[in-house]
Amino acid sequence: MTQTIDRVRIETLVREAIRGSLKSAASASAAAGQSNAMSAFSPPGWVDGKPNLRVSISARHVHLTDEHVEVLFGAGSTLEPDKALYQDGFYAAKQTVMVVGPRRRMLPNVRVLGPTRDFSQVELALTDSISLGIDAPIRHSGHIHGSPGCVLVGPKGTVQLDQGVIRAARHVHMNFADADYYGVKNSDKMQLVVRSKECNVVFEDVLVRADEKAKLEVHIDTDEGNACNLEAASEIILRKNECNCKDH
């Protein structure tokens, strides 16, 4: 009888051990799957589970319509990508144009950015607009109503723009995960702190431009980049604007 009881007891213990082992394995597998799923989800531009901030100097450039590309570079012409930009799908084209302002002041070899747009637009820094003799207003891209115009000259023709010359306002591209991380949303304003030796600058009014696919990138113009000595920066901080101001 003792032998029988011992054998039953042993079998019971073995079954319990096997069940416990299977449960542990299943739990470990589920945890690993969850961990893999979490690691597999990485918003655009994120590194090591958090946003990877980039600050880029946006030099003077031109955006063109398909029609204006053909006028400036010849019938059937399209923009030819030369260098990919940080934001996916955008590029610096091989083509350049001359921008001509009042009294025939001009900027040669201004880079065209692609892809094409529904309207043509010229984005300058303050020193560029002074050089051209154009009083370009500070605007966010696409807000060209009532802005000055200019003449664009290409190898095959010219285009007279009645409006579209602006000084590009500083802004930050980000995706919705970036926006959640910083506690902001589209059209909010942020601050960019750039620390460099004897040249610390805090840029206010950095407009948030949030969409699903963007990577975290602040755009400032050449004058602003020079003012803060961006290339020699020792620390860069992007933070929520304390007053959370918006354009109305």
Structural commentary:
This is Phosphate propanoyltransferase. Keywords: Acyltransferase, Bacterial microcompartment, Metal-binding, Transferase, Zinc. Its cofactor is Zn(2+). Its EC number is 2.3.1.222. The protein has five helices and 15 strands. It has helices at residues 2-40, 66-73, 126-132, 176-182, 222-227; strands spanning 54-58, 61-63, 81-84, 91-100, 106-114, 121-124, 138-139, 150-153, 158-161, 165-168, 171-174, 189-195, 201-210, 217-221, 235-240. Strands 2, 3, 4, 5, 6, 7, 8, 9 and 10 form a nine-stranded mixed β-sheet that branches. It is elongated and about 105 Å long. The model is unreliable at 35-39 (pLDDT under 50).
Uncertain runs with pLDDT below 50, 5 residues or more? Answer: 35-39
Helix content: 25-40%
Please tell me how large the radius of gyration is: 28 Å
The percent range for strand residues is 25-35%
Provide mean pLDDT, rounded.
88
Number of strands: 15
Write the layout of secondary structure elements.
Layout lengths: L1 H39 L13 E5 L2 E3 L2 H8 L7 E4 L6 E10 L5 E9 L6 E4 L1 H7 L5 E2 L10 E4 L4 E4 L3 E4 L2 E4 L1 H7 L6 E7 L5 E10 L6 E5 H6 L7 E6 L8
Keywords: Acyltransferase, Bacterial microcompartment, Metal-binding, Transferase, Zinc
Pfam families: PTAC
GO cellular component, one term: bacterial microcompartment
